[in-house]
Design goal:
- The protein is 5% helix and 36% strand.
- By secondary structure, it is mostly beta strands.
- The chain has two domains: 88 residues, Immunoglobulin-like (Sandwich); 286 residues, no CATH class.
- The N and C termini lie far apart (147 Å).
């Protein structure tokens, strides 16, 4: 018995070392619930009749049994009308059409009007000679208290046409302009506060872009129009004018407008090698419409410098790329390759303007030019509206900019009374009479032969 008792005591002692032992180690998980499965362990999941998935809300068809109030009664529609600057507009006629009738109401002194409408949809319309027509469709299904408020902000009726003109003519079809194949992004701002932006395709045979500009004093209304095209390079062009051009119809009613050249990519020059761009936005007075009377760049030396002897020289024409296609015969801009430019000398830009002959007396030039440096910074200058008529043609020279020390960051606009000339300068004296760059040459001792 002795050996057997000892064995039993040893086994008993070993089993009593950990009285809480209940089998192999367990992971720390919550107890299983037959109805909830392991939701307490992972609340985002559940077992539903053996199907594993995400817990979702129980479907209810309660909404189908409750119809919106607009189906059984009327809705009080309160309408506010404000102008472009946000001010309330009294005495404006508003037309309201519901599912059964159409009525008109007039805004009170606070620019407010109200009308009862039937059904769950209504259309509010404001039509006024001075403002663009405004149409607003209103959904009344979400209206639970029987009232709905809307505000209509009106815009002035457009009265100014922008013609985004093609860059030049196609050599194969000389009478047809090359249309724009890219979207153009434009924006404008006038001195009287008119602003806006938009997108168009441009081109001579497309409808003009119509904007609103204050025309009460067209001779003193300033306007800036910017246009860009994402087709490579700094394809940015800007027109700035200090007065509005217009043409009158048979009844003497004026129509206002301007031409802006569609910027080109100038793919002949790598954008990294471009020093600056020049865009010409010039037209004959009252001839901003249609495809006639095109003003383009004539043949000549566009970039003038002073040589060591004090006379005017020109930069090699190879520095100038007039278009992104060799088929363009009548260019309205160019790019300059910096590898051909001496950055230590002042550059005067002198542009020969080639105008088609017209059947009336002594026309004026309108518009201007834009200088765009390699970083996209734009400088503009306006043509002088007087043409030096030489008796047999309308060809003139336009000197819009001077690039001091050949550095585009130091570009200066030529004074307005110096921009038009019958011939480009031939000596240092004439050069610096137009070019406003700093220089040590005393013009008081100039003698022009």
């Amino acid at each position: 018995m002795g050996p057997v008792c000892i064995f039993i005591l040893v086994v008993s002692a070993a089993l009593s070392v950990d009285a809480g032992w209940r089998g192999p180690p367990q992971y720390n998980r919550p107890p299983y619930n037959y109805r909830q499965g392991y939701n307490k362990y992972n609340p985002g999941m559940h077992y539903n009749n053996g199907n594993y998935g995400y817990q979702s809300k129980r479907y209810s068809n309660k909404g189908l049994s409750v119809l919106p109030p607009c189906t059984t009664g009327s809705t009080r529609l309160e309408i506010g009308v404000v102008g472009p600057d946000g001010t309330c507009m009294p005495d404006v006629c508003v037309y309201v059409t519901d599912e059964s009738d159409s009525v008109s109401v007039t805004t009170n002194s606070l620019g407010l009007a109200a009308v009862n409408v039937k059904g769950c949809t209504a259309r509010v319309t404001v039509s006024n000679i001075e403002y663009e027509a405004k149409v607003l469709d209103i959904d009344l299904e979400s209206c639970e208290d029987g009232k709905q408020k809307v505000v209509l902000k009106l815009k002035k009726t457009c009265n100014f046409n922008i013609i985004f003109q093609y860059f030049g003519y196609n050599a194969e079809f000389d009478y047809l302009p090359v249309p724009s194949k890219h979207l153009l992004h434009y924006e404008y701002k006038s001195s009287s506060g008119a602003t806006g932006f938009g997108t168009t395709i441009g081109g001579c045979f497309t409808a003009p872009t119509c904007i609103y500009v204050n025309t009460e004093d067209p001779d003193n209304e300033k306007l800036k129009i910017s246009v860009s095209k994402s087709s490579g390079g700094n394809t940015i062009n800007v027109l700035e004018v200090s007065m509005l051009d217009y043409v009158e119809d048979e009844d003497g009613i004026p129509s206002y407008g301007a031409r802006v050249t569609i910027p080109s990519a100038f793919n002949k020059i790598d954008p990294e090698d471009v020093l600056f761009y020049i865009y010409l936005n010039v037209w004959l007075e009252s001839h901003f419409k249609g495809c006639d009377n095109i003003i383009c760049l004539g043949y000549g030396d566009y970039l003038l410098i002073i040589d060591d002897s004090g006379y005017v020289d020109h930069i090699d024409q190879d520095a100038v790329s007039k278009a992104d296609s060799s088929m363009t015969l009548k260019p309205m801009g160019f790019a300059v390759d910096k590898s051909y430019v001496d950055t230590s000398k002042d550059i005067l830009i002198c542009l020969p303007l080639k105008a088609e002959l017209v059947s009336y007396g002594y026309p004026y030039f309108e518009g201007g030019a834009a200088f765009v440096d390699y970083n996209g910074k734009v400088t503009t200058n306006e043509v002088n509206d007087y043409i030096n008529w030489n008796g047999d043609s309308y060809d003139e020279y336009f000197m819009p900019f001077c690039v001091c020390e050949g550095d585009p960051k130091k570009v200066k606009a030529v004074p307005h009374d110096k921009v038009m000339t019958r011939a480009c300068p031939v000596n240092k004296c004439e050069f610096y009479e137009a070019c406003p760059c700093p220089h040590s040459y005393d013009l008081g001792y100039c003698s022009v032969e």
